[in-house]
Amino acid sequence: MAESGEALGTVPEHERILQEIESTDTACVGPTLRSVYDDQPNSHKKFMEKLDACIRNHDKEIEKMCNFHHQGFVDAITELLKVRTDAEKLKVQVTDTNRRFQDAGKEVIVQTEDIIRCRIQQRNITTVVEKLQLCLPVLEMYSKLKEQMSAKRYYSALKTMEQLENVYFPRVSQYRFCQLMIENLPKLREDIKEISMSDLKDFLESIRKHSDKIGETAMKQAQQQKAFSVALQKQNNVKFGKNMYINHDRIPEERSEIVLRHVLEEEDENEEEVLTVQDLVDFSPVYRCLHIYSVLGDEETFENYYRKQRKKQARLVLQPQSSMHETVDGYRRYFTQIVGFFVVEDHILHVTQGLVTRAYTDELWNMALSKIIAVLRAHSSYCTDPDLVLELKNLIVIFADTLQGYGFPVNRLFDLLFEIRDQYNETLLKKWAGVFRDIFEEDNYSPIPIVSEEEYRIVTSKFPFQDPDLEKQSFPKKFPMSQSVPHIYIQVKEFIYASLKFSESLHRSSTEIDDMLRKSTNLLLTRTLSSCLLNLIRKPHIGLTELVQIIINTTHLEQACKYLEDFITNITNISQETVHTTRLYGLSTFKDARHAAEGEIYTKLNQKIDEFVQLADYDWTMSEPDGRASGYLMDLINFLRSIFQVFTHLPGKVAQTACMSACQHLSTSLMQMLLDSELKQISMGAVQQFNLDVIQCELFASSEPVPGFQGDTLQLAFIDLRQLLDLFMVWDWSTYLADYGQPASKYLRVNPNTALTLLEKMKDTSKKNNIFAQFRKNDRDKQKLIETVVKQLRSLVNGMSQHT
């Protein structure tokens, strides 16, 4: 029962499998058949049985179907066989037609293939032409780039590179040659940078070498322009010039017109030769390099490099040679190099955009100006030649005017010129000190003799001398001053001219120039001339006659000072009455020199008196005088008479003072001779002889050797000697001792100490000469009297000491 149940269940399943096999694709039959074996054991046998039954059923259906259509199939076969013959005929016809058609189409096929091939070639050619039309401009531009590189047109080459990169290369970027070109452009740019930088270095080296020529040309042009302006100014009003006042006459106007015409002719001759900085220097390397770096976007690097190199060159230019101060050419070369440097910088500033700026040039100029001033201040201090200092000043003025024309501030240079002006004045003072010394050495210190009117006019044209009395005298006659006076006056004017030369072109007012001239002239008078006069006066070989002439000379030079002031006024047109106008101190200078000469006269006169006194040879033990004055004293008095005769040309007070000083010194010398400590004994005979000499001195004083003394004023110089000698000659001790200290004393000028000293010398002499006379009563009384007087005099001396 169980088995029958299972068989019943298997049959529907097998039917389902058979339906799936019939309905599904044969590729999917595998899983269906596998399910047959996966089921119950022996189920495949049943399935096979079932399958066979199914096949039999289908065979039956096919057979039934074939039996149904068999007649129609037979009919169709029959008709097909009928058509077979016609088909074979048609086949033959078609084959023949095809053959003939093929034969006829062979030529067409050949032609068609040719046409196709031509069409392909035509299409390829068109494509090639189109591509070449894209590539040829690129190749042409690249060829153009190569030509520009070869022709060193680097800026154009860079522009061509930009066009290639921005316009042409994008069109043909797929080609290999384009990639090679693109890879080569950076190298070309670097080559251009290196080449342009090399050109720039060559340019910098060139302008370094040619900067002096550039500066020389610029300074020459500035100098010509200045000369033209000065000529115009002189044509309108000639205020400066040495010839205009040398004879107190002005330069004729025709002279200034000739000067102007000469300047214009020179400018016309040099007009074609005027060169600019562009003519002297090729700036194209700078422009090219600047444009190249601008195109490359590296302009800042170029600017920094250019400025750095130029600053280095500036330091080299500003470094002077150690021997620059020795010649003016050294200074000129120094200035021309600096001017050339800044002229180039100014040109670069105005023709380029941003390579150099005004702030940069101002900074560079301020640095250079500080260095220039320091260099000039140091090197000019070594200059001892005023002509060299003057040439240096002119160079500085041209240097400053040139750079000022290019817009550089130069006020500090003109301030420096004021320092150099002081140094220039110092060198002038040293030079004129030598001039004055030479004049004094060559002078004969005697009045200037003149024998004709022409000689008189020559002297008065050199020196402003006016004396109506001298003019009235007949020839030959003499000027009171010596030859050095007009020479000194001329040299002072020459000094003023020399000082004026430095003041020109300093852009200062007439008032300032006037002040500078007066101050420098004051220095000449108060320092240089005064020092030369004092040194002259103190020279040992200058005698009394020369000193007298020096005093006369200084008097006339002092009177000429007002003419010097007028001379300066005529030059500057600044009136002396103007407020703050400096006055000349020549008056005090010549007064001081005259006082020194007077003092030297007194000193030399006293020295001469000492020389005569040293010749005195007294016999201090003589018993009786000679009856006449000593020879040395008479020679001395004769000398004094001749000297005082010369003193008549001196001012009255000077002659009187000299005479009084000489008499006082002679009196003092004679008194010292009596009181000399080495003189131990004096006899009464020697005192009497000495008295004779003093009498001659008194007679000389009373003879009025120099006019102007009141009464016996000059004789009072010997009053001390006179009273002392009278006291001893008269032996009036009682009166002296009784009246001592009284205003009306007869021997008021006799000092007790002096009287005691002389009395002791005579006392010793008395003892020596009267050794055996002490037994005589008169001699003993006299000796006692002397001892008594000595004691009284000692008491007076002691009283004076205690009182003091």
UniProtKB/TrEMBL annotation:
Keywords: Exocytosis, Transport. Residues 50-219 form the Exocyst complex component EXOC6/Sec15 N-terminal domain. One of its GO terms (biological process) is vesicle tethering involved in exocytosis. It holds the Pfam family EXOC6_Sec15_N. Residues 413-761 form the Exocyst complex subunit EXOC6/Sec15 C-terminal domain. InterPro entries: EXOC6/Sec15 (IPR007225), EXOC6/Sec15_C (IPR046361), EXOC6/Sec15_C_dom1 (IPR042045), EXOC6_Sec15_N (IPR048359), EXOC6PINT-1/Sec15/Tip20_C_dom2 (IPR042044). PANTHER family: EXOCYST COMPLEX COMPONENT 6, SEC15. Component of the exocyst complex involved in the docking of exocytic vesicles with fusion sites on the plasma membrane. Belongs to the SEC15 family. This is Exocyst complex component. It comes from Sciurus vulgaris. The gene is EXOC6.
